[in-house]
Amino acid sequence: MLTVTNDTARGPLAHAIVDTLVHRIGKDEHAALPHDWLAATILTVRNEIVERWMDSTRAAHAAGAKRVYYLSLEFLIGRLLRDALANLARRDEVAEALAQLGVALPELEEIESDAALGNGGLGRLAACFMESLATLDLPAYGYGIRYVNGMFRQRIDDGWQTELPETWLAHGNPWEFERRESAYFVGFGGEVIGTEQGVVQWVPAEAVEAVAVDTPVVGWRARRVNTLRLWTAISLDPFKLDAFNRGDFQGALADQLRAETLVRVLYPNDSTAAGQELRLRQEYFFSSASIQDIVRRHVQYFGDIRTLPDKAAIQLNDTHPAVSVAELMRLLIDHHDLSFDEAWGITQKTFGYTNHTLLPEALESWPLPLFERLLPRHMQLVYAINARLLREARKADGVDERAIAAISLIDEGGERRVRMANLAFAGAHSVNGVAALHTQLMKSTVFADLHRLYPDRINNKTNGITPRRWLQECNPGLTALVREAIGDGFSDDALKLTALVPMADDASFRERFAAIKRANKVALVHHLRDAMGLRLDPDALFDVQIKRIHEYKRQLLNIIETVALYDQIRSHPERDWVPRVKLFAGKAASSYHNAKLIIKLANDVARRVNSDPSIDGLLKVAFVPNYNVSLAERMVPAADLSEQISTAGMEASGTGNMKFALNGALTIGTLDGANIEIKDHVGDDHIVIFGLTADEVAAKRADGYRPREVIEGSKELSQAVNAIASGVFSPDDPNRYRDLMNGLYDSDWFMVVADFDSYTAAQRQVDARWADRDRWRRSTILNVANMGWFSSDRTIAEYAREIWGVM
Ligand code: 26V
After folding, report:
1. Domain-embedded: residue 348
2. In a domain, 470, yes or no
3. Which of 376, 442, 609, 742: CA 20 to 30 A from 316?
């Protein structure tokens, strides 16, 4: 790919890249491999970023500005080079300089590894927020863990998911700066002793050192560069020479190994008991290091710890960092000698908490004995906070013992557990949901009793996505067209996209819009051909469901409908079927049996359907391996139809739904999460809604829902379910899907059966709309035009004004 030119017309930037290659990478042009060029390019570009970074830091300091701290166990930032170049507005220039060296920038961008430090939506949201914070020129730090392996890499072997370590750091990481001087002790275990002066002291049994590794985050137009500070762990005694000299080589390194284990992998969000203790250690490790860093910075800049809430807003991204509440209390009381009440006032004013799921099994709680053994001082503080909370609750009207039990930080039903959501709620002045419906359900379900006690605390901040990465960078064709039509103000203010509304009625604009979608589909077709040997027709309707595999997201509903459609096409080949390509991608947690089986089913169905000549290519199905941010950046711009089909009430928001609509796909979806608000913005005629509402789901569950009767009453559904159950798609193991299908007959918690007919009807409505091409294109343009509100700039501006007080 890379040939060296002896071009005489090399500009200064080309010279600078070669200079970096020689002096920083230690290679000459002839010996340089693609990764050497990539590193040299990043290091060269980085120089400019670092200057903006220092300017930003200095300016915030000089202004005595309040800073935002976003604590998150996940940051799914993906690749950084294209993003950084786009936001610096230097991409053309760098491409030109590299061309002078015989190097193609897009090929370098393509070999950069994805920083896959997240499971899904929550982690990607954190990354979009970091970009918007910098774009809005708000001084902010993201705090998390620098996982050496991050999220696993998925391989599909004979249709089954295999998990492999993601080696994203294999070629080093030229973006990061290790800050050995910013290091903190983080203790675990041990005991709490009271001194004679009444001062409490925690004496941990073990400790590791948290070391900061910083990555610059470039905002749009490089207005500001903020810091993503990820912690790595080193042992205080990395090499025990005495043990080594005794011949105990492993023992000599044991401490270092324990420290490294702490930052090795990100836990999949639905993993079970395995690794529980390690997960709690990770949470405390990064919370403690981050809070110590924030307190240190505040005292250094402002002197008095009591002004912390005026100068720091700490946002907890879900409950993963909730132990920070107890950690700040510990530092304020034990190290800064504040009274409990004063410390509590400061803590509540400083923290905000964002909830991202209502699934009961996803609400974190820790067995009390584990919490107490690992964090004895924090346990005492949790009890003290709880005593105060319950005292307040008992004073309020109408709070009975049931309500007290629900409000308590300790779950006393069965094995006693510490409830992290209640701790986060109690310790924060703001508790927010991530879409309107989700926030309403927070008030009426999991937090109902806490909400009654503190009715002003819960608020909504509907999620958003950054239009830089999710339109400008991933869809350059559409971006160019939009720029030509309405100018380039939409990258600064996505609401300006509404200027496209009248263009929907312009036939020639529609043609050009459609040509860009087709070109994006062709690019995806080529990629999937090269990557997995697939042959797809770019003129078919591309129907895409890409997200974590989970029963509530109902990939199974989509697959069963695919089977029913396949059956219909076979029975009625004479009908005017719309050619469809069904694409799936997503990872299943390694311990989640049904999710892994659903991946296998998608692959089994794909094999059978794709090799059936009788349907004449009218239907193709594919499961694309190793879903990550970069794959999303390819698939989203190529989609015609976006599948957002969760059981109503279960998807807190969704953000993939926003990415697709912004790139001109129509949504088929339930009235769940942000789908509802998307519908309100794009208009009822430009989205396809089906299925039960959240209220109807709740009512049906309460009434004693009988899915068996529904299946038996629907010929299409029973044929599809029975075909899967009896091994039509798994002749090598006919019983493979028997239990999965029996689950639908017996309980069907996720209402796949209840929504099936409505979903099928909606899909045929999609076919009809697709057949009316002008109408389809009009709708897709109106989607793009009306999605500006879902920019994460809007979301962050709301957090900044209403929670953090920094705008
Ligand atoms: C966690 C767990 C843990 C154990 C069992 C099953 C389970 C299922 C889901 C989760 C999700 C954890 C939180 C999360 O990632 N929520 C996602 O956050 C996005 C950003 O707000 C939002 O768009 C998604 O709807 C929401 O699922």
Report:
1. yes
2. no
3. 376
User: CB of 362 closer than 6 A to ligand 1?
Assistant: yes
Q: What is the pLDDT of residue 2?
A: 47
E strands present in 409-499: 410-411, 417-419, 430-433, 458-460
Whether residue 326 is found in the same domain as residue 287: yes
219 and 121 in a common domain:
yes
Given a cut of 50, whether residue 333 has pLDDT beyond it is yes
Strand partners, 667: 642
Please, which residues have CB within 8 angstroms of residue 215's CB and are 6 or more apart in sequence?
77, 80, 175, 176, 177, 227, 228, 230
Same domain, 448 and 539: no
Decide: 268 in ligand 1 pocket, CB within 6 A.
no
How many structural domains does the chain have?
3
Establish if 571 belongs to a structural domain.
Answer: yes
Query: Which of 269, 355, 364, 554 has most ligand 1 atoms within 8 Å of its beta carbon, as the pocket-test mutant?
Result: 269
Q: Is 400 in the pocket of ligand 1 (CB under 6 A)?
A: no
Examine the domain organization and report whether 385 and 402 are in the same domain: yes
The answer to whether residues 134 and 217 touch, using CB atoms and an 8 Å cutoff, is yes
Residue 2's domain comprises: 1-64+91-112
Which ligand 1 atom minimizes the distance to the CA of 361?
Answer: 5
**What does the pLDDT look like over 762-780, one tens digit per residue?**
999 999 999 999 999 999 9
CA separation for the pair 282, 111 (Å, rounded): 30
Instruction: Kindly report, residue by residue over 478-525, the tens digit of the pLDDT.
Output: 999 999 999 999 999 999 999 999 999 999 999 999 999 999 999 999
The confidence score (pLDDT) of residue 6 equals 57
Quick check: pTM over 0.90?
yes
- Ligand 1 neighbour 270 (Cβ under 6 A): yes
At 268 the pLDDT is 73
Q: Is residue 595 part of a domain?
A: yes
Q: How far is the CA of 55 from the centre of ligand 1 (A)?
A: 37
Task: Give the nearest ligand 1 atom to 434 CA.
Answer: 21
Same domain as 548, residue 453:
no
Q: Which helix (H) or strand (E) holds 532?
A: helix 507-532
CATH of the domain at 307: 3.40.50.2000
The pLDDT assigned to 274 comes to 52
